[in-house]
Amino acid sequence: MSTKDPLNKTFSREEREAVLTSRTGEKGLKIERKFTKKGESPYASIKFELRTSKITNPDGSVVFEMKDVEVPESWSQVATDVLAQKYIRKQGVPQEDRDTGKPLLDKKGKPKLGAEWSAKQVMDRLAGTWRHWGEKHGYFETQADAKAFEDEMRYLLMTQRAAPNSPQWFNTGLNWAYGIEGDAQGHYFVNENTGKVERSKDAYTRPQPHACFIQSISDDLVNEGGIFDGVTREARLFKYGSGTGSNFSALRGCNEKLGGGGQSSGLMSFLAVFDRAAGAIKSGGTTRRAAKMVCVDMDHPEVEDFINWKVIEEQKVAALVAGSHICHEALKGVVKSVNDYGSDPKKNPNLKRLILAASKVHVPLNTVKRVIMRSEQGMTLKEFSFRTYDTDFRSEAYATVGGQNSNNSIRVTNDFLEAVEKDEDWDLVNRTSGEIYKTMKARDLWEQIAEAAWQCADPGLQYDTTINEWHTCPKSGRINASNPCSEYMFLDDTACNLASLNLVK
């Protein structure tokens, strides 16, 4: 923007309206058509076709399949899959005859309900709702401008020139387009007429369209703002397709005392709870994983355990995979030997050798014994079963271990980095008392971070000092965390709404 442009300074609302008026002659937005024509469908120049979208497990079993999804011919199969598997509304949508557009009714004369099936339906509910909100709040100068805005947005979305963030695809327009309400979920909104915060009466009249949240967590077990309230708040966001990040450094370490006596379970214990909860909730109720960021400060008493969390869990996966195959082969041999020569090791030297061999590779002897007993009762080799695992990230092995449902980041300060450079000591500090829990070499911690990141890509680094030096609103509080992808860094208990433009197109 030119430095001579009058909008390049700070204006009051009245001044800004005056500037806009001087430019357009009116206060409302004037929308010039770039890609569409008045009176013509914005999709007139786009060719569509029907496709199938399918997700399968590593073993070939079908997780999801949707046939006859209408999308532009120019779309890739990946784009089709994203729309069909994640963003298309799966129920509650009034059904229409695909050829005539007439409503389909059941035997009682009520509309049949089902899923969206066309990209046109999705783009129409998004752009239509945005137009509706704009008209409701006086954004457009005329109805023609509102219609031009809607048509241009429908074209931009359909041709992949622009896209909103995921919660918009999940939630926006379900009420406006289809009358879907849903039970209230604890969301709040600011009433634009009164300026007051109100609780939403249902899930979709005032939908939750924000992509990224940063939430604070206090060192409290069950009260508002505390640990298990945080679990609930994260679940609420995941359910509607949003991501959230938090700095968990306020939680006391496992070495610290509780107010009522006894000792705290510690940071890592509670992170395991958050991790399992996130894994149980599909973001937006679809096949999309929950998006979650965990940040911990460099001086937390459990920072070493946090740094190495995913490394250890990866090792557990390796143990599960290797151990399951070792056990399967060893036990299969035991079953065959019992079937062929009997279950008495004294009379069956082959069985004795197999038992000793299994013991040497650490197959539990109680498991060997149970297999022998079942074989005595008539179990054949065909009936024998011992589950094996693989290293696919979607497999049961990864679902079994912890730490798989978040991005983990360490908040490092300039003081820490200088201590690394100078090979100085670094203190880990108790949260409740402020006393030093442990002193160690800063370079030892730095080496642990590097080793862990090399092994499993976590933890990442967030440069706390630099981030806060660049803070645009420092008087409102410091920046402690980020959203799951780290492109949004701001105050605790805030959110942002993102969109993308395809500059190539």
Tag the structure with descriptive keywords:
globular, 505 residues, 6-stranded mixed β-sheet, alpha/beta, disordered N terminus, 38% helix, single chain, two-stranded antiparallel ribbon, 18 strands
Structural class comes to alpha/beta
The residue fraction in helices comes out at 25-40%
| Largest sheet: number of strands, sense, barrel closure | 6 strands, mixed
Assign an overall shape.
Answer: globular
Radius of gyration: 29 Å
Count of individual beta strands: 18
- The unreliable regions are 1-11
Helix count equals: 16
Widest beta sheet: strand line-up: 14-11-10-9-8-17
| Proportion of residues in β-strands | 15-25%
Description:
The protein has helices at residues 13-24, 77-87, 119-136, 143-158, 166-171, 174-178, 227-239, 267-280, 303-307, 309-341, 349-360, 365-376, 396-400, 414-421, 442-456, 464-469; strands at 48-56, 62-72, 93-94, 113-114, 162-164, 188-190, 197-199, 212-214, 243-247, 291-297, 407-412, 425-429, 436-441, 460-463, 479-482, 489-491, 494-496, 499-501. The chain has 505 residues and is α/β, with parallel strands linked by helices. Residues 1-11 have low confidence and may be disordered. 31% of the residues are buried. The strands form seven sheets. A six-stranded mixed β-sheet has the order 14-11-10-9-8-17. A two-stranded antiparallel sheet has the order 1-2. Strands 3-4 form a two-stranded antiparallel sheet. The protein is built from 16 helices and 18 strands.
